Amino acid sequence: MGHGHHHGHDHSHGHHHEHGDASQSLPPALDMSVPDEELTPNQLSRRGMLRRTGLLGAGLAASSVLAGAATGATPAFADAKTGRSGTWNGDFLWLAGDHHIHTQYSSDAKYRVVDHVRHANGNGLDWMVITDHGSEQHAKIGVEKVNPDIVAARDEIEDTLVFQGLEWNIPAAEHGTVFVHPGDNEVAVLKEFENSFDGAVKGATDNTPANEALAIAGLNFLADAVDQRRVRDALFLANHPARKGLDSPHEIRAWRDAQPTIAVGMEGAPGHQATGIRAPQGPGSGRGGYDNSPSAQSWGGYPLDSYRTWGGFDWMTSTVGGLWDSLLAEGKPWWITANSDSHNVYADNAVRGPGSDFNANGKYNDPVYGGALNLTDGDFWPGQYSRTHVGAVSFSYRAVMDGIRDGRVWVDHGGLISGLNARLKAGGEEQTLGGMLRIRRGDKVDLIMEIDLANGPNWAQFVPTLARVDVIQGDVTGRASDKDAFAAPNTKVVTSFEVNQSMGSVRLRWSLGRVDRPLYVRLRGTDGNRSAVGLNGAAVDPHGPAIDVVGDADPWRDLWFYTNPIWVLPA
Known about the structure:
This protein has 12 helices and 21 strands. The chain is an alpha+beta fold. The model is unreliable at 1-24 and 52-90 (pLDDT under 50).
């Protein structure tokens, strides 16, 4: 293969968690050139899980690597190649992950770091971010205390990349994930950031211009930390943006415009996906924790519909021609992700360690197992339900961050599909998710979609079936004159494909025709169990996701995938 790794149990593998940026080969559990007998017990266990769920073997889904258009068959892991960043000249390595996870260092959670990492690894995740809540206790002692646990987990589970971050209480707004590239200063930078710019620590949660300016100052601090090489990289993603109506359109635009290489996107779908399971089998509340009403701090322009999820996705993302599309119509990147927001796992039997004093220690004692199943908890383990798939050029921290920043991302719930390769093609030029295809005005452009269907059971022990794929297209109309605009009137579903098979891969093609104006396309797919006419009418979205009913929204009966956009820019 020529990947340059050494087979064996030492830590000299090319994929070991070094803090450098050298290209790294595949994790040994996924690299079929490494025999079973040369794997550690943990690696062998993970390979067994992937085999049982059909994720190893021939085919696109098996490799999680997208093949170039010219290749007839998709290579398996042993033959995986990497491409150059920002071009489609080979195969990207698609790495599944989760950027929103809480541990015993959060006041409303309980698990150890290693518990989450082991579950994430067992569920097939390649990367994850530990994001304990910003708070006075966390700012004083939690940032330092959690770091040795993260470092130990990196060493123990070598084929899952573990970032340290935090959940930022954004001044004047909601929450967000902030994380940095591992390195000598990861703790110092996160600690200074939290103490200086966290809304809860600074008493800056109210919706005021001064607090909005403090949020921008926080993003500027992260950019300066990268520029000064205190950390190699940093990213910010807004979490559950419509949950309480706190993230106004002008704030989102301000974050993006102030530091477009730091503030890169938002959760397209929140965590807490089990919260809508009907009582007494589940919590019986709002799916994703979206069961709120407007408050005095909410932005007044949002409709009541925005306080609920739609097919498990945030209203900003799920509404065709809505807020997300209004951002994309400016021609500027703003990406979506999906994650667990895991605090307390549904149907788990752990409780917080007895004798805990969080206020004094900044953490709870290690959880104790063996009690009754917690059917009122609403979270899933990382990778158990939600996955964010990032197109990376190598198995490394830097490559994951670059892939997120470049928008090479698609997300799914419940293992609806196993792999996705979407690209726009004009002549010999191609661009994949997050890319910008530059053409001559009037060139013919085609959208090519290769989708690997689910090839194994998910956690709920059924094999999902993809029923339909929608192509959503919108015009790029330029910078919004109204910073609080949240509509894109020229965006709509332009075609849909019924998927009439339950196994293998499907290849779909849609011609955009001869393109004479800047535009973008994005994809959405569903199991077809719950659909409704979109909020902007049937001419815009004839069969989009339905609003999730509070108290009766089983996440396993309503599965969707979404992709980030690809732009076409005629010269």
